[in-house]
Each structure stands twice: as structure tokens, then as C-alpha cells.
Amino acid sequence: MFCVAGQISGTAATAQDVEQSLKQQFEGKILVLRHPIQGGSLEYDSDGKVLKGGGEGPWTIYGRIKIDELQLQADKLLLKGTRVDYKLDGRTKQLAPFPNRKHVSVQISLKGTSQDLVAADAVLSHIFAFTKKDVVDSAPDFWHLYLEKNVPTPKGQTVAEPDADAKLPNLTDEAIAERKNFWKSTTPPQAVYTPAPSLPSSVIRDAHFNEVVVLNVFVDKTGKVGQIRIVRPLGEGLDEEAVNTVKKWVFKPAQHEGQAVGVEMNIECAF
């Protein structure tokens, strides 16, 4: 799903050697920003602090950059490339990269001299996520479950989805039976207030556009929506819009033996 470059390794070398090594590592690769900063020109200090750029936006729009060109100068590193959108691939039903024409440049101040490959590694690691854990952590909490299942491991292999018939792998047969009995005697939450999400202006669709984001939500015993996790995304910033909208939804709480209870369930938020 994501191209995650390996970290740089090596010792001190000439500036030309360092630049060549960096080019081999990163040119043509999709890099993951630790923070999905908006804007076409980004500047960072050597500790990863943003000196120039916009606010944070959805990672499916602003979180990935395909590096076309890398230049190493005396005290800074310049990266030029294009933003990479992630949206649902109708064939695979997974988020997939779709490079767009939005050019972006990244200027990074370097500590020490440009001949220090280890220093360049440390600086880049402040700005880009090079491990699966860092990629997952770069997104909001409601993305973590989905990303943990779908981000490639360092070897490029994805973590498989759990089998549909093995959703409760850590529960005993007795516990599973207890859960089934609970639901047999429980009335699920009933929707009371469910405003529809707005279609972001950046997403252009025809009048027949009809897609849904599937979310797993916890509806507490007062009918309010608590924890939200993405189950099936659409990308292009639609998922964040769905989450922000569903936070406002209100339900008549689930009822178990005459008492209001909190329950977890999947819902669809349609665009």
C-alpha cells in the first residue's frame, strides 16, 4: 500500500557520495510525512520543526510525496516532487496511490556538514516515517486499526486481514456464547439525529456519486458516539469528513433487559 524507504546507513563520505547515496535511496520513492502538512513549499529545521508550510490536513491528500529530485547543498537538503493522493481502488477495494500534479518542495536544514551521512539520516527521520509503527502513528487514532492491517512491513508484505469467521480469536467458546446471548436480548441503538457529511470541494464527482465510509463506533448508554475507527475508507479526505460528521450523530441507546447499555457497532456514512 505504501512505499516506505529503508533508513540510510553508512559513515562519513564526500558530499558527492552522500548525495548519490540519498538519491539512490529516495528518488522515485513515495515518502510518508510524519505530519501531513499542507502547502506547496515546506521548510524544516534539523529537528523536524516546520518553519514554513500550512496546517495539517488529511493524510490521504497531504501525507505522501513522490520524490522526483534530490539535491544536497552545503547546509540543507532539497527534495522536489509531487503529492500522492490515496483513494479507494474499485478493483482491489483498498486505498491505493494516485500521483497528482500538485508540485511540492521540501527544504531541510542540516546539522554539521553535508558529508555526514548519519546526520542526514537523523534529520530525515524527524520529518519522514520510515518504519511501520511510525507510519501508523503519523495518522489520527481513528486510522490506526486500518493502517495496522494494511501498511506494508519493511519487507513490503502487508499484514493480512483477519478471517471473517475469526473475529473473536482470543475468546473462549463460553465467552462467545455469552456475547451471542447478550445480543439476542439486546435492542440495538436507534438513529435519532444523523446529518449527512459534506463532499469536500477538492473531490469532484458527478451527480450520481454515491459512496460510503464504513466506521466502527461505540455508542454509549446516553446515545452519544464515542470511539470511532475506520473499517473501510474512501480516501481523498472523505474519511475525516465522515468521522467529524458521525461525532455529531445521536442515537437512542441500546437496551439490554430494560437498561440502557453502551455497544460497539459498524455504521455506514454515505456521500
Please characterize this protein's 3D structure:
The protein is built from seven helices and 14 strands. Strand 5 and strand 6 form a beta hairpin. The radius of gyration is 22 Å and the shape is elongated.
Q: What is the global morphology?
A: elongated
Unreliably modeled segments: 5-12, 155-168
Q: Terminal Cα separation, in Å?
A: 24 Å
C-alpha Rg (nearest Å): 22 Å
User: How many strand elements?
Assistant: 14
Broad structural category = alpha+beta
Short description:
The chain has 7 helices and 14 strands.
Layout: helices, strands, pairs:
Blueprint: H1 15-26, E1 30-32, E2 41-44, E3 50-52, H2 59-62, E4 64-72, E5 76-89, E6 94-109, H3 117-127, H4 132-137, H5 144-150, H6 173-184, E7 186-187, E8 190-193, E9 212-219, E10 225-232, H7 238-246, E11 250-252, E12 254-256, E13 259-261, E14 263-270
Parallel strand pairs: 2-6
Antiparallel strand pairs: 1-4, 2-3, 4-5, 5-6, 7-12, 8-11, 9-10, 9-14, 12-13
